[in-house]
Amino acid sequence: MDFNTDSICKGESIQQIPTEVLKKTGIYFGDAHFKKDCMAVISENIKKIDGECICRIPFCTTLEAEAFGSNVKLDKYNNQLLLNNFKYSTVEDLSNLHNFDFNRGRMREILDCISILSKRGNIVALNVEGPFTVLTMLIDSLTVFRNLIKQNDIIHNALLIIQNNIREYIIRAIEKGARIISYSDPSSDINIIGPATYRKLAGKITYDLIRSIEGYIDDCIVHICARTSLPFEKMKFCRSTTIAVGNNISYGEAICELLDNKDIKFLGHKCMNNTHKILKNSTVWKLDLI
Fold this sequence. Notes:
Layout (H helix, E strand, L loop, with lengths): L4 H4 L10 H7 L3 H6 L1 H15 L3 E4 L5 H5 L4 E4 L4 E4 L21 H15 L3 E7 L1 H8 L2 H6 L5 H25 L3 E5 L5 H4 L1 H19 L7 E4 L1 H9 L3 E7 L6 H8 L7 E3 L14 E7 L1
Parallel strand pairs: 1-4, 4-5, 5-6, 6-8
Antiparallel strand pairs: 2-3, 7-9, 8-9
């Protein structure tokens, strides 16, 4: 596999709630992020406007970091939810990481929203940030990169805590009715942390996480972002094969078409931001863990 990552994925962008959807529904954009019923209505309307077959939540990349205690703020000019500041300032502070509380806050609202959307007959995709990316939303990435060798044990332990909580989050989401897990870990960029660190740390953490949820995936698919899946295969954590799908269908339609295929659990090497686009060559990439 020798794809140019940048030609497939331009990098993860914060999903902005279209102003037209807020006007049409009369929902305040803050409620769209924090209240399950409003979130469900917004997700269904975005799906309709985009001509998609998939309802996606959440509408930001901050949920996991917020669940670990980071503060978020509403950006009313762009209908977005952003991190206000880092939770931790030193690597030593990472020893204070706590587990997610799934029974309160936005985490509970997200999980309940999945159930609402699923019961309405929607195919729900949950956007999930990987451990390394969550870590760099809790503490400045420069602090992490500068201490990867000197304080590797603390960083590795923090990543394991994050990994375990994300695992539980994904399992609960599947139990609530999510059928697609859209997984990305863009901060574990092999060009920044280097092949050795990727193989021993970031890649291994993702591999163990994905392997640990494999048994819970029955009529679901985990889609791994190309920016994550391509180096993942390059470092021999997985292998890919092409799968033929219907002609003249979008990438999202292809994913939905494959949901009941028990032989396919992981897809990758493409971008979930392009699910509305018609597939070239009518193929997708199946991934198998090694």
